[in-house]
Amino acid sequence: MSEYSSPLLSIPGAVEADGADAGVAAHYGDPMREQRLLEAGQAAVDLSHRGVVRVAGPDRLTWLHSLLSQHVAALTPGQRTEALLLSPQGHVEHHLRLTDDGEATWATVETGTAAALVEFLRSMQFMMRVEVDDITAAWAVVGSLVDGERRETLTPRADLRQLAGGTEALAGVWADEALRIARGEPRLGLDTDHRTIPNEVGWIDSAVHLDKGCYRGQETVARVHTLGRPPRRLTRLDLDGSVDHLPAPGDSVVLRDTGKQVGAVGSSARHYVDGPIALALLKRSVDPGADLLVRCSDVDVAASQELLVDPDAGLHVRPQFG
User: Fold this and answer.
1) What sign does the dihedral 210-211-215-220 (CA atoms) show?
2) How far is CA 177 from the centre of its chain?
3) Do the beta carbons of residue 266 and residue 305 sit within 8 Å?
4) Within 10 A of 144 (CB to CB), how many other CB atoms are there?
5) Residue 184: partners with Cβ closer than 8 Å, 6 or more residues away
6) Order of strands across the sheet with 169-171?
7) Pairing of strands 169-171, 43-46
8) What are phi and psi of 14, to 5 degrees?
């Protein structure tokens, strides 16, 4: 049980989520209907367990630009983007959803990561005119889909209860997660581990700018993109629907014909159209057409692959000679 408990859990029918999403509602009584409404842009999802960081000051954009994987130096008020903070070795440490209001840059981050992010950013301030604050206690995140794209907006935490009486329906995080997995979007800490580089999980397209100047971890990202292939690749798994429970994060993925382990499951959900689905990190060398099994509790679940990351990523930009 999370120490945080959203006020929206008091709504009749609300069922609390567990794991990484403890503290907010998994659903409000009808998860499949909530998925349909959310996908249609007619529902909002309580993500108030996520973290919120605010960076103010006249140097904020150029300073963030020097640290993050995304080009943010010219971020305009209201513009939204994603960015990563990488380790010096290029491993993903933080995933940020950013927007600027002309005076400050606001970042929403994975649950439980805001304090560590603020600590790191403050350690890098030096003489820059910036102020970094964890404002999670004052601001809450609300999710929605706008024209098919996932969007996170902020509301004063004191106003969160007003969502229950708003014009939009409420959807739980089960709905949000099912649609995210169907879109093939990774989530930090569930679909990544301490070794994950952006090239493995598709964040090159959404959260990395390949032509910007130097930033922490850039060398690894650029080298894999231009000269090599990522050691692993994110894939979507379509699971056999005859099993009554979903795989857990970390469950093994094996080749059906040999039983050799080739990866592990991250997040999973039941989609209102596609049935049980999951994201998994597999070895790059796994044949995209190979039949797989997920070792789920005490049963093996058949799984087929839907490519999200090209196993030969990097070869298309390899220099040609002769």
Assistant:
1) positive
2) 10
3) no
4) 19
5) 202, 234, 236, 279, 306, 308
6) 149-156, 139-146, 43-46, 169-171
7) parallel
8) -70, 135
Nearest CA-CA partner of 152 in 190, 180, 120? 180
Residues 9, 245 contacting (CB under 8 angstroms): no
Structure-token pair, residue 78: 């209201």
What are the residues whose beta carbons fall under 8 Å from the beta carbon of 280, sequence distance 6 or more?
A: 234, 235, 237, 253, 263, 264, 265, 266, 294
Assess whether pLDDT exceeds 60 at residue 299.
yes
CB 305 within 8 A of CB 237: yes
Position 220: which residue type?
T
Is the pLDDT reported for residue 315 higher than 80?
A: no
How many DSSP H helices and E strands does the chain contain?
A: 7, 17
Does 316 score more than 70 pLDDT? no
Secondary structure element (H or E) that encloses residue 226, with its range: helix 218-227
pLDDT tens by residue, 166-225: 767 999 999 999 999 999 999 999 999 999 999 999 999 999 999 988 999 999 999 998
Residue whose tokens read 């249609």: 40
Residues recorded for the chain: 322
Strands 15-16 and 25-27: antiparallel
Answer whether 0.90 is exceeded by the pTM: yes
What is the CB neighbour count within 10 angstroms for residue 91? Answer: 17
Give the β-pairing of 51-56 and 131-134.
antiparallel
Provide the greatest CA pair distance for the chain.
70
What is the per-residue pLDDT for 164? 82
